[in-house]
Specification:
alpha+beta, Creatine Amidinohydrolase, Chain A, domain 1, Creatine Amidinohydrolase, 2 domains, 16 helices, 19 strands, disordered N terminus
Length: 495
């Protein structure tokens, strides 16, 4: 494969004239195939409406990545433009309601190595692909902002105050990354967004600087039909990976092997990466909600928690299931897990549009209480754990302002937007209640993805087994790890 690729590249160089990019075929899209330019334009129109005519929004795109990794645009910049090149800037002028995209100049040497990238020299092409009104060079941004200030056409700049979401990153992790760096006495650098705000204030003190995040956050809360379709694909891939784990898991399998088979399924079907690091936690590792070392060998009699999903076209999912490492639940596991499934279903079955999270919680808590009253537990501490689980859910249902059933999902695994009030069409979220038995270091949790429609709630991951009999039946089947056993070293060679 390498030899063939090198010959094709070399033939291209034969016909290359210095200063002119070589003529080598490149069959790769320069703009997203998931959304038409009209969808990005509609999002920008809503930003114009929200900030008013006397303001301008300035959004900084992602910088060049570290290492030999594929560039991934920040969520916020992609949401408003669809452009996937580094060091780009987007200006939305509230007065003219026009969008200007600022791009770097063509880097011919890099294009000869990596393929074509959109640049300011592609003015007409960029406008036709993205639907922006104007394309300019990055170095023109200063003069353009200064011109707006001189003409008094804008007095307010909206820009991002929160850390932009990058690869496998929700805002909560972005904030943690920044605060960790600020806490390092040998580092202390502010966020890229804070640095950008400082430059704007230094260069243009006449502008008032306002936070753009609340505007974009509320827009991202409600998903369009095309966004829902991509989230469905991410959810389907996450579910298929967990189903393959159910086939492949057995005593002796290492956690990272399950991570590997999931990645195969994701990348095979077009994912561009992980939505978050794989949470494959066996036995005593499961109680750590974000355990991701992947280093433990699974043992007979344990439960495995798998919480993992891909990034498909900048949209995520978040799905979790439990499974017995041996392929069959023990008597005590069947009792405790079986109770959890009934309680979990009490929530899922009551999710619907037009009602608040508190109302759903109250209805679900009443159903959980009825299940608990009629459930049999062999082990007293399992019954006590189930009682605590129900009581905790009942207490949560009574708390005022408990506006979420779980967390939003979209361009980030922990997505932005306010979920207060009745559930509305276009909301996408997960639920993930957890049951703990601390005396046994036992932890049970599931998670499904829900899309709210006008007249119903769609449980996208509902085909993924959660009932005991369905899980055990699937685990009888041969999995990828059994079809392709681990390579072993023989005389220095892996075979």
């Amino acid at each position: 494969m390498f030899r063939k690729s090198f010959i094709i590249f070399a033939l291209g160089l034969v016909f290359w004239t210095p200063g002119v990019p070589p003529v080598v075929a490149q069959d790769a899209p320069l703009f997203t195939q998931d959304f038409p330019p009209e969808e990005f334009a509609a999002r920008r129109e809503k930003v114009y409406d929200a900030m008013g005519s006397g303001a301008v929004a300035v959004i900084q795109g992602e910088a060049t990545t570290r290492g030999y990794v594929r560039f991934r645009q920040s969520n916020e910049f992609y949401y408003l433009s669809g452009i996937e090149v580094p060091h780009a800037y987007l200006v939305l002028n509230g007065s003219s309601r026009q969008a200007t995209l600022y791009l770097e100049h063509r880097k011919e040497g890099r294009e000869r190595s990596e393929g074509k990238m959109l640049s300011v020299e592609d003015d007409a092409l960029v406008r036709s692909l993205s639907g922006v009104d104007r394309v300019a060079a990055v170095e023109d941004l200063n003069a353009d902002l200064g011109g707006m200030l001189r003409r008094n056409s804008s007095s307010v700049i909206y820009t991002l105050f929160q850390p932009a979401e990058g690869f496998a990153e929700s805002r909560d992790l972005g904030i943690r990354r920044v605060t960790d760096r600020l806490s390092d006495p040998w580092d202390g650098r502010p966020s890229r967004e804070a640095h950008f705000i400082g430059l704007l204030k230094d260069r243009f003190p006449g502008f008032e600087i306002n936070d753009l995040n609340p505007i974009i956050d509320e827009l991202r809360l409600i998903k369009s039909p095309l966004e829902m379709e991509i989230i469905r694909k991410a959810t389907n891939l996450a579910s298929l990976a967990i189903m393959e784990a159910m086939r492949s898991v057995e005593p002796g399998v290492i956690e990272h092997e399950v991570d590997a088979l999931a990645k195969f399924i994701y990348y095979r079907h077009g994912a561009q990466g992980d939505a978050y690091y794989s949470l494959v936690a066996s036995g005593p590792n499961a109680p750590f909600p974000h355990y991701h070392q992947g280093a433990r060998t699974m043992q007979d009699g344990e439960l495995l928690l798998m919480d993992y999903a891909p990034d498909v076209g900048y949209y995520m999912s978040d799905i979790t299931r439990m499974m017995p490492v041996s392929g069959q639940f023990s008597t005590e596991q069947r009792e405790l897990y079986g109770f959890y499934v009934r309680a979990y279903r009490s929530i899922l079955d009551r999710i619907r549009p037009g009602v608040t999270a508190n109302q759903i919680k109250k209805e679900a808590a009443a159903a959980m209480r009825m299940t608990l009253d009629g459930w049999r537990f062999t082990k007293p501490n399992h019954k006590e754990a189930a009682i605590r689980f129900v009581e905790s859910y009942e207490a949560g249902a009574q708390r005022p302002g408990s506006g979420r059933l779980g967390h939003g999902v979209g361009m980030a695994t922990h997505d932005v937007g306010t979920f207060d009030g009745p559930l509305r069409e276009g909301m996408v979220f997960t639920i993930e209640p957890a049951l703990r038995v601390p005396e046994e270091n036992l932890y049970i949790r599931m998670e499904d993805l829900i899309i709210i429609h006008k007249d119903h709630a769609e449980i996208v991951s509902d085909f993924l087994p959660m009932e005991i009999e369905d899980i055990e039946a699937l685990m009888i089947e041969m999995g990828i790890l059994q079809r392709y056993p681990e390579l072993v070293e023989h005389n220095g060679v892996m075979k």
